[in-house]
Amino acid sequence: MDIVLNLAPFFTMFVMPVLIRKSTENDLSFIEYAERTCFPRFQQSSRRMLQKSMTSPVQEVWIAEKNREGLPVPAGVLIIHIRLRTMRIYSIAVLPEFQGSGLGQKMLTHACNQAIARGFEKITLEARKNDERLVNWYLKSGFIITETLKDYYTGGEDALRMKFTLSRPKRKDPISNIIIVDDPAKWKFQTEDARIISSKAYITGNEFQTAGNLRVFNLSNSYRYQSLGYYVSLLASAREHRAIPSVTTIRDFSNLSVIRAIADDIDELIQKSLEKVTDNRFNINIYFGQTVDPAFRQLGHKLYLLFETPLLNIRFTKTDRWMVSKVRPISPDKLDESDMQKIGKYAAAYFARKRFQKPRLKHYKYNLAILVNPNEPNPPSCPAALRNFKTVANNSGFYVDYITKEDYESLGEYDALFIRETTNVNDHTYQFARRAYAEGLVVIDDPWSILRCSNKIYLNERMRQNRIDTPKTEVLLKSNFKKSQLSKFTYPLVLKQPDSAFSIGVTKVNNPEEMTISVEKLFKKSELIIAQEFLPSAFDWRIGVLDQMPLFACKYYMAKGHWQIMNWSKSDDDLWGATESVPTEKVPDHVMKVALKAASLMGDGLYGVDLKEINGRVFLVEVNDNPNIDAGIEDVVLGEELYLRIVRSLYNRIEVSRNMARFVALET
Questions:
Q1: If you write DSSP's letter for every residue of 114-168 in order, what string do you get?
Q2: Are 527 and 227 in contact, with CB atoms under 8 Å apart?
Q3: 95 lies in which domain range?
Q4: Segment among 71-75, 295-299, 393-397, 640-644 with least mean pLDDT
Q5: DSSP assignment of 230-273, as one string?
Q6: Could you tell me the pLDDT band of residue 9, with boundaries at 50, 70 and 90?
Q7: How do residues 471-511 score in pLDDT, each as one tens digit?
Q8: Residue 353 to residues 193, 215, 300, 405: CA-CA distances in angstroms?
Q9: What is the mean pLDDT of residues 232-238?
Q10: CA 659 to CA 433: how far, in whole Å?
């Protein structure tokens, strides 16, 4: 019988001074040595077979390194085979001197994490039947025996085939549909399969902060940046509710280049559907995935799948061929009255659906663009660090170009984008990330990480949902805020603009008078702001995390005479506080554990997790999607290896995309 994946025993062991990395050609001798040392002769693979495993598009070899006297020492080897829906663990080898240290469990955990990340259904392996200790180890880890393979290794040496099913427990509660509108009293349609909720109720109601398994149809009147409609989709993402439209789709509406890159997939259908239109402009309304005019039904459905929004208007213009010139949601209070009867039927059918598709974009490969801003006074990487990235990337097989915001139209020429300019969801850095992803590039920082990390409202909700300690926080809603509330707060407080970064948009207030001034200023920019408990400390921990593994650790001390690590009122010499780099294995376990968990809630990219440690408790300050990596600061411990690990991650992501695409093509 199948079992359900239980990750608890794996994640409890996730914080450890171990690096598990993809093998390189330089590892072949060690891999061969591990085979000879760890397995009997009849189980050993030849050097040629091992070399093939390292280069095969459907096999991967991972090296586990332990830290010994400050230096990484190879200690184990994991070889996996990739199938269409299955990962097969071919072998796990731990050198004798490291056995009993939990290293084998960590490699098994790594294999499980890889399988989960790629959406596999199960993990299989073969274990020597006579090795009772090994078989019991796999059984305790959750594997089950599915069959006995007679004389599998050699005469008299049988194998047990074992399986671990990667299925999550089914929720007992069904998916509930809720429709979010600004004013439920004005909702005109009969929708038996969905509950009507106001935008304010969804944002502030305790019921929706704790509810699970919700599908949220966001029909707010406006999706503009930092409006109530924007926050409905943003908070739905933080609460792990399925938002339609997603906050990513909302951001796409404002970017014509991204819109056209996405719509390019159905260009042939666009030209064919509009070939009889005589005007040079054409508008199509898509109501819940359907169009009133049956002639455009197929086009409307395809456009809905690309820009998944219940009420949508698409504008086309024609020069030599038809192009999408604008995509905008239709406000429920501005629907065409003549279409209302049909819209009502479309709505009833739409909300009765059980499944909603997500559009999928494709990947390509092998040239690297590094996005920089030569004029940025405090970029995330200094010139020396950028040179290090380029050198390491060149040596790893990348052709590297530094690009700026002027190179937006040339993104399609690259296979990966690495952003080394301060990111913001409301400027060109997000547009670059989204455009790059839409065109199939591997991207760090990916657009979802930028969206999630750049907004403190999302961060606060996401951490609260997952029981990570943060400074006591209250979200203030502009329409509900009253000055009479000021007396209930304990001062000093820190007020944060939702998309604040690098200490900009963050204010410390010491009394109600200062708070009044700051609140009025912040509410001019956003419907919601954050009021947070002030926790003084000598330094903040910054834990760099990549691919959900620790990358670097630093102590960032407060700027001289200031309460933050940056003091923008000072000159360059006094802008930053002091820094101290620390080996990741010397970071207290409880600090590292929180950092890794917080980063995993954002994604699997490159993050800088800021934490305060006060009286033995760890408080999350924020998770940065674009952490500083400067020469002489973050790279003090690892040196060139720090840059190499980031470049390897980009390379491996491209390789995984390419190899999986090849394998699926072969299998189908």
A1: HHHHTT-SEEEEEEETT-HHHHHHHHHTT-EEEEEEEEEEETTEEEEEEEEE--P
A2: yes
A3: 8-165
A4: 393-397
A5: HHHHHHHHHTT-EEES-HHHHHHTT-HHHHHHHHGGGHHHHHHH
A6: very low
A7: 888 888 888 888 878 778 888 888 887 776 555 567 888 88
A8: 9, 11, 18, 42
A9: 87
A10: 23
DSSP state of 382: -
Report residue 636 as tokens.
């003090």
Across the chain, what does the average pLDDT equal?
A: 83
> What is the rounded distance in angstroms from the CA atom of residue 86 to the CA atom of residue 122?
5
Query: Whose CA is closest to 414, among 486, 458, 358, 366?
Result: 366
Structure tokens, 652: 């491996």
- What are the two backbone dihedrals, phi and then psi, of residue 504, each rounded to the nearest 5 degrees? -85, 135
Domain boundary among 308, 328, 358: 358
Alpha-helix residue ranges (DSSP H) falling in 57-123: 103-117
What does the block give as tokens for 337?
Answer: 């009255």
* 183 plus 311 within the same structural domain: yes
Scanning 312-381, the segments in alpha helix (DSSP H) are 340-351
| Of the candidate ranges 14-23, 140-149, 273-282, the one whose mean pLDDT is the lowest | 14-23
* Matching residue, tokens 């674009």: 626
* In a shared domain, residues 157 and 175: no
CA geometry: angle 243, 249, 250, nearest 5 deg: 90
Closest CA to 123 of 98, 142, 96: 142
Is the pLDDT assigned to residue 173 strictly greater than 60? no
In 3D space, the residue among 255, 212, 270, 253 whose CA is nearest the CA of residue 236 turns out to be 212
Same domain, 281 and 228: yes
Q: Is the pLDDT of residue 84 over 70?
A: no
For the chain, percent of residues with pLDDT exceeding 70: 88
pLDDT in tens, 315-336: 999 999 999 999 999 988 888 8
Q: Which of 562, 559, 556, 560 is nearest to 543 (CA)?
A: 556
CA-based torsion, 460, 466, 471, 476: positive or negative: positive
451, HSE (Cβ side, Cα atoms, 13 Å): 25
The amino acid at residue 66 is K
What pLDDT sits at residue 13? 36
Between 1 and 604, whose confidence is greater?
604
Q: Is residue 569 part of a domain?
A: no
Domain boundary among 313, 338, 358: 358
Is 60 exceeded by the pLDDT of residue 25? yes
Identify the bridge partners of residue 176 per DSSP, sorted by sequence position.
214
On whether the CB atoms of residues 195 and 241 are closer than 8 A, the answer is no
Contact 215, 175 (CB under 8 A): yes
CB 182 within 8 A of CB 218: no
The verdict on 336 and 373 lying in the same domain is no
Backbone angles phi, psi at 67, to 5 degrees: -90, 125
Residue among 524, 433, 441, 547 nearest 478 (CA): 524
Q: Are residues 125 and 219 in the same domain?
A: no
* Percentages (nearest 5) of helix, strand, coil residues in the chain: 40, 30, 35
Q: Which residue has the tokens 């790893």?
A: 396
Residue 36 has pLDDT above 60, yes or no: yes
Q: Is the predicted pLDDT of residue 664 greater than 70, yes or no?
A: no
